[in-house]
Amino acid sequence: MEGSTTYSLTEMLTRLADSVSFILPELTLVGTFLLMIILELVFGKRNRNVVPVAGMMGLVLTGAFIVAFWESWVPSQDLAQGPKGLFMNMIDSDRFSRYFHLLFDGVAILTILVSMRSKQLKNRSQGLGEYFLVLIAMVVGMHFMSMATNLLMMYLALELVSLPSYILTAYTRLNGRSAEAALKYVIFGSFSSGVMIYGISWLYGMTGSLDLSSPAYVNIFSGETDWTVLFIVILVLSGFIYKIGALPFHFWAPDVYQGAPYPIAAFFMVTSKAAGFAMLIRFLSFLPAEGILKDQLVIVLGILAIATMTVGNIAALQQTNFRRMLAYSSIGQAGFILLGVACMTVFGWTAAVFYLTVYVAMNFSSFLLAGWLNENLGTEEIDDMKGLAYSMPLLGVLLVIFLVALTGLPPTAGFIAKLEIFLSGLEVYQSQGSPIVLTGMIFMVINTVISLYYYLRVPARMIFQNSPAKITLQFSGLIPVLAMVLAVPVLWLGIIHFDDVINFLDILVRDLRG
Amino acid sequence: MGLLSLLIGLPLLGMVLTLFTPKGSGSVAKWLTLGVTLAQATLFFVAILPAYLGKETQEAYRLVEHLQWIRLNLGEIGYLNIEYHLALDGLSLTMVLLSVIIFPITAISSFRIRKRPKAYFSLLLLLNASVIGVFTALDFFLFYIFYELMLLPMFFLIGLWGGVRREYAAIKFFLYTLFGSGFMLLIMVGLAFSVTDPELSGILGKSVYTFDMLHMMDAANYVKGSLFYFDGILLGMGSRDLAFLVLFIGFAIKIPTVPLHTWLPDAHVEAPTAVSVILASLLLKVGGYGVLRICYGIFPGAGIQFASFVAVLGMVSILYGALAAMAQKDLKSLIAYSSISHMGFVLLGIASLENAGVNGAVLQMFNHGIISAALFLLVGVLYDRTHDRRIGSYRGLWGKMPRYSALVIIAFFASLGLPGLNGFVSEMLVLFGAFANHGHFGQWIAGLSVLGILLGAVYYLRTFRRMFFGSFNYSGEGDPASLTDLTIREFSMLIPLTVLMIGLGILPFLILNLFDGSVTSFTEGFLQQAAAIKQFIP
Lengths: 514, 538
Description:
The structure holds 2 protein chains of 2 kinds.
Chain A: H1 9-22, H2 24-43, H3 50-68, H4 86-89, H5 95-117, H6 119-124, H7 129-147, H8 151-169, H9 176-207, H10 215-221, H11 227-244, H12 252-259, H13 262-285, H14 292-317, H15 322-342, H16 346-377, H17 388-391, H18 393-407, H19 413-432, H20 435-464, H21 478-495, H22 498-510
Helix pairs in contact in A: 2-3, 2-7, 3-5, 3-7, 5-7, 5-13, 7-8, 7-13, 8-9, 8-13, 9-11, 9-12, 11-13, 12-13, 12-15, 13-15, 13-16, 14-15, 14-20, 15-16, 15-19, 15-20, 16-18, 16-19, 16-21, 16-22, 18-20, 18-21, 19-20, 19-21
Chain B: H1 3-19, H2 26-53, E1 62-73, E2 79-88, H3 90-109, H4 117-136, H5 140-149, H6 151-161, H7 166-192, H8 198-204, E3 208-210, H9 213-216, E4 233-234, E5 237-238, H10 239-254, H11 263-270, H12 273-298, H13 300-305, H14 307-326, H15 331-352, H16 355-386, E6 394-395, H17 397-400, H18 402-416, H19 422-435, H20 443-468, E7 473-474, H21 488-506, H22 509-534
Parallel strand pairs in B: 2-3
Antiparallel strand pairs in B: 1-2, 4-5, 6-7
């Protein structure tokens, strides 16, 4: 029923007109973007706060629209009516994507708030007007990334996220690290998106369509053992893999997370990874349930997951810089999430989305805390953090909570996230007996133990050792408050009500096609 | 709120109160902690123990608290259920009894903590709550949460208030335990997907997978074709055998069993006295408790199959621990190694699967809890005075500290198994069981284990002679004048323990009666279960 039905011109026009109403949130964002350009021209030099405040209000409005019209994102039986297959099967604005949009918008609001207060950004750049503009453009790209059902749309959305990322990474270009990171980012980004579009061109050649829901795709995806299709799909996947920072396209991640201005690095670390995963899951949801390709991809993604988590964690083990350690550990986390995705079941994807949600809270806040340390203490070296917990007990407590959550120990949401991945993995193993998922879980346990070692080093330095010099720093300001607020769900969802959240996400994932 | 929840809730409440005491009021924190632990003990002796013993009905698990907690909807697969399920049987009752005796003593022992007392006592109370939680939880998920929750306060207690190499010891302790419990998590999840709750499945109309241990112990609840069904294969061996081994390793790290013991001497040597006491008397018991309740309780078939493996590990621990103890120059690490040796008896007793042996193992856990607490406190007494624990530094302490010496010799004799003191009873029971085991393992294992008692006598008596006999001489760096006899505070900790050592040596049935019924039904039920499982195996 879906896909390549050819519409008459009138039908097409009505459908297009109908579709517009379904992207009201995105239109709001684009409107905000345009408004911000004008505001920048008018107020840019006189009042630095006008543009970011406008951006935040736009984001709040977007989020409000998403929540207010929640019922309209529920897919209807008739594909021509509901939020699916918009703009001639370009995007699906279903609840799955809308949930991600709320995450992106929320994190973007916090990022703007933090950026407005950041001394580092102010000192090392010339004006922040474009900074906020580009940030909003990036959020628009992420919105479309999680909605795209057409390969071209996926590529465009990916680039719409990548290009602003390069600019933002280089924003403090007076800082050598920032410029170096941006260059690495560009090179890896262009390479992997080149590989991706090469794969897309192959798929287009084979099917004559870029629309993933067209029957031609079902045909080639469910065909008998065909290594070419697998190879081409892997080429396409490289674009996603680059965005989520998994092996073998992970080399940009540590440099970018360390080199970019810290608010923006924290933003990338959580949102562009989440957007990449959203797009990956949506792509995989188009694979037909039968057919060898799905089983092959379980193996490919499973191997990638194992490699990613192991390499990320072992590299993190050797880091002495707190931010760089978090950067490598986020590669490790991506491996864990990828294992959930590799299960190729609703259960596994739910686990991955839950993990991503928790990941957003715990990584964003621990990264901001690292940034706060950098800005106020002038260093991020773990060895320089000796005895910090004595002068700032709250910082110690918060870091312990977030690092314990990142390790995945109870009673934090990080534990529940890992447990979910285990549950979905074992379910797959039990029903389909795929050894790669089992191996992945065993590696996950080993990696958790490895990660404990480097995560614990931070509180151990802060709490077990005395500081060589007297520190008279006040742990106050915006970031401590944000971290405290984000610690609440991290603890809360570790003990109760996580079943409600997971059951809710389960419904969202079932909105996907396939 | 049930009595058991109250028992867990009290220290948590105390922790919150401690955190909110004003700055610089360390003495409030310590009195509050002592008050809370005494209230806990009172609650136990006044309400819980009579309620447990007074039950007319003879159900195995009493004072049950059963609440729905988490229900995950898995779509077409069914539901996954997690419950807040607490109850006591004889085994957990004994362990909780031990805990409520030990915790007030550790509170008193911590009175001289000067460094950040508020943080110290809050962590102590958090540890208290999680230990009681582990011993009472009957839902595997809940058990696991409490099990992991013990690690963090322990990590900070060792790392912050410990000796010179405290950071190393704390991280080593954490890594070892997490290595075991990480794999335990995998098995737990697999079990949850293999076991359904028959009642709830009936009510909800879909299969309800459960974390409830009682359901996991019943062969009838296993789903045919599931991972831990009786014919399951995992990584080339029987899935249930593998699960048993993985869980066993997890708990063996905790007990600790040779060769997984190397974290223990480090942790003990670096930890402050009170933390050593908790570690030796309670946390090690969590290992033994886990082996009995979870490994053997859920996988009886594998328990029989691996009986000789477990017994050999027990024997090796007994002998290796004793030999290593003989070589120690530090009094605290001597006692740490002797702990390894004595916990080996617990494994040996469990492996015998014989009534006397298992009873002996449980009694040995209780007795070792009492004796090792006393021993670590006694080491702490010396360390407080001179900051020197080397055996070779001291000579002729008897003349200088007669009351101290008297208590030391009682504790030493209790530990080495002198008849009339409590250690003897449990070790004898274990050895009876080990010799009489129903052909599960060779009797030579039991025979060699007897040597452990002999070696124990050697290192304890030699140490005692070196340190206490002869004319007084102190050759360490501390101040010899500080070597004064016990204070009232120290007496108040040691006297109850000494009374228990002597009392339970003469009247062991006081404790044995608490769990004898449970253990008997456990060993009988175990063999029945194992027989019942046989019929499921093709």
